[in-house]
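Please go through the sequence line and token line underneath and see whether the fold suits the sequence. See right below:
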Amino acid sequence: MISSFILSALLLTVIQPPTGWSFLAWVAFVPFALACSPQAKTRTLAFAAFIVGFVYWLVNLYWIEPITTIGWLGMGLYLSLFWVLPALAVRFARAKRIPLFIALPILLVGWEHMQGRPMGGFFWRFLGHSQYHNLAVIQVADLVGAAGVSFVVAMVNGLLADLILCIGAGTARRVGLAPPGIPASEESVGQAPPYGSRLSSGRIVLAGMVVTAAVIAGTLLYGRWRLAQTPAHVTDGPLVGSLQSNVPQSVKQSYSASDQLFNGLMVHSKAAAAAGAELIVWPETMVQGILDPALWPYLKNIDEDKAFHKALVEHAKGTAWLLVGAHGAEIKWDDRDEAYLETYNSAYFYRPDGTRDPARYDKIHLVLFGEYIPFKKWFPWLFKWFMPEGYHPSLTLEKGKNYTLFEMAPAVGGDEIQKAEPTAPGGSVKAEGLGDGSTASVENHRQAALDDATPSDLQSQQTTLSRFGVIICYEDTIPYVGRNFLLADGDCNSLLGRILRVFHRHPRYFALDDRGRKRIDWLVNISNDGWFVQFPQHEGRVVPSSELPQHAAICAFRAVENRLAVIRSVNTGISCLIESTGRIRDGYLAASDGFPQEAMARTAMTGWFLDRLPIDSRVTFYSRHGEWFANGCAAVFAGMLLWPLGTRWRQRRQTRRMAKAA
């Protein structure tokens, strides 16, 4: 039993990036399903699944341990439940002789969905995520979300497990381990046909082959059809420049290099603007200052904040739209009527007219323990045990309350770019000189970027008003966020907002308006993955972890689900452009010197790249109906766990009644 669990754990480890042996995902859960024998004792099965699951998650979340050992162990304990509970559910399905090609995909999607729900959720290392580069397979996500991809892969796993059980039963009979005269109910599991007689078991497996083949064929045909129709629905959007810093969190948290970080990003930002960027995106919280002038009278030591704000205004004016990550804040008063600063993880938007958009986006889905302490408002006394100076609301970030749609008017400054004369065909630009911190002049850098460009590459294509939404950090891993961000332009923490959040029936979607049309043209993901790299002082370089490529791979599904391109700007990587088909685009129109063409290689480095955003006009079934499929599977999964408990309760109740009657 435990060896089967270990084999599944090993397979599940190597199917995700950076190893990326995704073909093994189609068999990874077969040992798991075979281990969940109906004759296995409940405690033995649960203990084996817990031990293996705990070790599996600790190994694969090794990048959390340097941040918080307690959090790392806590995550391992919590996530190990999603080995124990699925093992019990699969065991129950086998005991009820439900074919695994049906049971396993439904249960797997259900437990993946429930894994992501409590306290902000953790939608990580799902079976379907391993197929991110298999474009024909993942297009089904625009119908049923990423859960649909997990479902298809798990169905193949379930069919193979059914086939092995049937073959095993036949072999056992042939070698005399299970005499034909013994009824199936009296035979040991693995020797008896899994679904009654050999004939009925064979018919079920044959039906499973037909159904599974039909599902795979349907998935591939649908995927190829959606991919083929994409060019007819995609138009050119603005030129966007994405900046990537390379700052470990240990350095960033010290605040000793705030000015240096800002100046380095400003050099890259000016280079991207010089290459023709109409929208320039900075990573999450890389501007270490409060950029809201209304708050400055309440703050101390604001010279740096003012300088950052002024530099951004001057940079944007007449040049480009700037989206930067920084902390937002509000003045609040505690129970002692003392003022404190309530801080947010925010995105600010600067406009080419020299102003800052008065709205900002404050991150709503915060990372547990990393950005907020759960129940902090209801049980502040708990944290006095952990915090020597006691608990105070300002010690953690606050959740955002409103959903912001940023607007871009038709691009400015395009005339000069349109006059550039190409010197080489192909539409590929390689800009040199600033990727290594060089102080080469911006004008020279701009000319280097334009020398190999065609006019159509760098000509502004934006002639109408465009809108986009921002998702910060791990918000791009949560399936429903890209779809609706709960109540767009509304209060998500109101009673109505919470009720609608439960049922996902929102009157106004983030992705769609009241008439079912797209409210936004693309998504921007700004992130700081500097938490998850190491910075050995003796090596003097940043060492990336497996979190970086896995984060990018998960984000690809948000693009497919709503047919929205995603531009990522990530500290330490991976900064990239993800098309509405989920393809993580390699290459670019322009970039800093040494910035890799291969997107997944952009880890632990600094730089920038320029590319054109594709705008997809298609409205998806998923955008309209959300997580209906995953919710349904989760309900079945919960039912599989509760059914035995209900049966036992009824039996005990009946026993008591009979005892009283006697």
